[in-house]
Amino acid sequence: DAEKVSPCCVAVSRYMENIPITGYRLQERNIPCVRAVIFKTEKGQFCIDPNQPWVKRKIIEFWKSLKNKISPTSAPLIQTSSATENSTVHSGGKTTNHSSLH
Question: 40: closest CA among 56, 60, 62?
């Protein structure tokens, strides 16, 4: 995948290592940004194609794991807004940016 410089995801990957996610957010299309699901992991953040069938399953797994970890009275904070940090964005697995988006 080509390396891109932008404050948001400008390219997406179809695949991601099978590692647990610690959060996610949806980025809407706003040129040069592309529509993406940004998965947050211990290894950084990854820009993923939201149309991949495994993405929804990964999000469901995340919510199920949260249900097992939190009490019914506490609610998780999940961002759904676009990325606005100053960052270098990759669709691969390299980290060379300020907000660690891949």
Answer: 62
> Can you give the CATH number for the domain in which 34 is found?
2.40.50.40
Domain extent, residue 34, equals 1-102
CB 99 within 8 A of CB 85: yes
Cα maximum dimension of the chain = 43
For 13-31, what is each residue's pLDDT tens digit? 999 999 999 999 999 999 9
Global pTM? 0.64
How many domains are there within the chain?
1
Written as one string, the DSSP assignment of the chain is --B--SSS-SS-BS---S---SEEEEE--BTTB--EEEEEETTEEEEE-TTSHHHHHHHHHHHHHHHHHS-TT-------SPP-S----BSSS---SSS-B-
